[in-house]
Amino acid sequence: MGSVMISPLNWGLGHATRDIPLIHELTKRGHDVTIAACGNALSALQREFPDCRFIDFPDYPAPYSAGSMFLPKFCAYLPLLLRALEAERRALDRILNQDRYDLIISDNRLGVYSDRVPSLFITHQIHFHFPPVIWPVELFALLLNRKLHSRFDRVIVPDNLPGPGSLAGKLSRPLLSSSLRYMYFAGILATARKMEVEEDLDYLIIISGPEPQRTILEQILLPQLPCLSGSKMVLLGSPTDHTATCPDPDTTVQSYVDTSEKISLLNRAKFVICRSGYTTMMELAEVQKRHGLLVPTPGQTEQEFLSSYYRQKGWFLSQSQYRINLALDVPAALPYSGFPSMPSTAQNVQTLYEEVLAPYVE
Length: 362
Fold this sequence. Notes:
Blueprint: E1 3-8, H1 14-18, H2 20-28, E2 32-37, H3 39-48, E3 53-56, H4 70-98, E4 103-107, E5 119-122, H5 135-149, E6 154-157, E7 183-185, E8 201-206, H6 213-221, E9 232-235, E10 251-254, H7 259-268, E11 269-274, H8 278-286, E12 292-294, H9 301-313, E13 317-318, H10 326-333, H11 345-361
Parallel strand pairs: 1-2, 1-4, 2-3, 4-5, 5-6, 6-7, 8-9, 8-11, 9-10, 11-12, 12-13
Helix pairs in contact: 2-11
């Protein structure tokens, strides 16, 4: 059977965790899978797939700031990023000189493609979102994205088809209909799965994302948890040995739990407080969670767009982390409906394998 390299970006754990069902499908069908990653993404996948082969493959730091300065910092960072992509491609060439693969799957690593090996790209962000006052920047980013994506054989979009059921909204909508020829809308790809269990956990709080914002959210939320009555579980989103304490006897804090435990907690939770990162949103859709509060990473335009989009659709309430008041925001979030029903990851990943991956690896 074919040999596959999968390389997720290490900007938070979202890219790594949404690749988990795809890696499971490939290993279940007898393929040799090599995971090329770095940082927390590498650590998380090593825990999940101890029998896979791993390569420590550095990427580049995310241009996030401690305030709302993401956009100017990102624009200044862009030339450095383009040089980093070239360095990433040269590093991949060195790997390919030593090892043979039938297929490369890059999750948002724009330099991980090859002229020698078929290369697929996973992204839900075809269309960047910027404030309307700088719409020329958004148009430039959209055209640049299209050029960079064209270097891959196919682009896999983990979303439903563009329309009212799209989970990513305009983010996954291409500028030109002609782009749809090389895009494959796979539907949601979530690690979580729906379980028939009792909802015996009142609140699940998932603190995630790149530093320093992960730590800032932790410092804001933990002191407020005593105002919520009932049982609470906090996941700190750090596979390393980070610890924290909460002044609330009804709250349990874990630095990190494995995938099966997180899935169980998502299903057991009556209410979820989390970032509006797209991977987490797919998990909420998969387990059909109705009640939650979204806290977008400040200055991260994708999460800010998604949280606003979901609020307008009546799916979930969102709140700025600097204005969050759990005593007020949690009751205000209860009337929202949650995501509409959609095909499950199990259906989607099987179809993705048969329609896109199998011709390359079988």
